[in-house]
Amino acid sequence: xxxxxxxxxxxxxxxxxxxxxxxxxxxxLSHIESKTPGSLLIAGTAGDGKTYHCRALWTRIGGxxxxxxxxGNIKEHRLDDGRLAVFIKDLSEFNxxxxxxxxxxxxxxxxxxxDSEIVILAANHxxxxxxxxxxxxxxxxxxxxxxPLQERxxxxxxxxxxxxxxxxxxxxxxxxxxxxxxxxxxxxxxxNCVRCALQADGKVCPIDENRRRLLGQADGGQxxxxxxxxxxxxxxxxxxxxxxxLLALCSNMVxxxxxxxxxxxxxxxxxxxxKIQEGGGIGRAxxxxxxxxxxxxxxxxxxxxxxxxxxxxxxxxESSNAADGLLVYGKDDSRLQADFARLxxxxxxxxxxxAFRAAQDAYLEGYEGARVEGGSAEFLEMLxxxxxxxxxxxxxxEPGYPHWSMTAFRFAGEYLETxxxxxxxxxxxxTVRGRIAKGxxxxxxxxxxxxxxxxxxxxxxxxxxxxxxVLCDHExxxxxxxGVGMAIRLVEETGCPQxxxxxxxxxxxxxxxxxxxxxxxxxxxxxxGALPASFSNECxxxxxxxxxxxxxxxxxxxxxxxAGDDDEVGGEAAALTLNFIDIEPGGRGFSRPVxxxxx
Length: 599
Fold this sequence. Notes:
By secondary structure, the protein is an alpha/beta fold. The protein has 24 helices and twelve strands. Helix content is 44%, strand content 13%. A hairpin with a 5-residue loop joins strand 11 and strand 12 (589-597).
């Protein structure tokens, strides 16, 4: 178990452990002290701190630390109320059928109404479901706990009766990262570095420099806030980053070095710093590149979910013409020199240092080495690092250089502002609402419409998956009015905005669509008229499925309206009115009715 490995490593290293809050521990303790019958499940993914919480709970109820540290995966402690607390430290430590006995004890407590024991089980989501399925097969039945737990994990459904479920995978957030960063970079043991010779006589120790930048001592915490934004976007896109991965991220930011010859396994130790200083390679330890795992070999970085998530933002590869113009030509262009000095050259450590300027000159002046194939690779690599640095260091609202333009999520800032507005019960930006409406119109019709005040629900006359649809089945306002139109709400369980398009007043006449960051970006890019090829078809398929639901709902609403309309009966029944979408010269669409009568 990772928790036990860390505990033994602390003993060998003789350092104070990193201490993190256990947000659900008090609730777990209250549940036990309330004498509520049944058992307790601590669930999550690898690295969420399940065993860490389990050990902390054992200590809080009076368990002996020596008993916990002794061999064995099942620990027992008699509570003051007479119940036997049975701790199963990690279900994954049991092989195959070995897990049957602890699972049977759990079932006996939960379903068998055995109040003599309370089982505290720590388990991964998938592993627990697999073990329950296999146990049920061996017993010739469907295990009664499997389905309710699956619904609890996947859909945030209710927990089974007599089983308190604490899901640690739902607790990681921006605040978790901020706490981890402070715990790593602000650890008391760093005080031993104050009088280090590697920082004497004006020397810069990259480890200490990175640590200070992570703490936000120079930028007021902007680096940490921008990282928090990325973590929030990743979470809302469905990526879960466990605490263990956040610890790995912060450690790599402080210790990372992109040159393996200077630091073994691309992680610096104090012994490496002297040769890095002598060789002028401090720029290779940039915290801004380390934040994306750029110091690590690609295969090694892709093995870590946190670096895989960070790489999805494309920081370093994405840029804008203005930002690249500043980085490449800024020092020589009189119109850009002031911005270059303020935004790039002002950082003498990771900004435009001597190595960057030399590579830049070789690139611009076309020396012989720059002409040969791959001759400019060094400068282009440095350019990527500078783009990463700019993402973290550009001031908020910097005119001409918005920091989100350095990522694949150019509209992520507006997305996060929308969430904050919804949380505060404030109206969202009309620009954002209009862009969403325009993007929806272009996807639903396949036409380059400019409308932002209404949404056209269109078909091609029968095939709902058609990319171009000119028959308007229904149109509705882009703002909810009198129970009709589009509303943008916040889903409390996920923290994600949701589009709710109502086609008629009353219950049951609306269709909802979760607006994840990637879907919002897709709609915004479509509204702006440019969609990069890097976007997968998944967003389009999701929106076409949403379109199909809207068309079905439009048919239901239309049928309900016609059922009470007597004018539709009789001679006019042979007439069919089709609403075609026409486009004005300015790009605004409107529906034009065409009546077709049978001969």
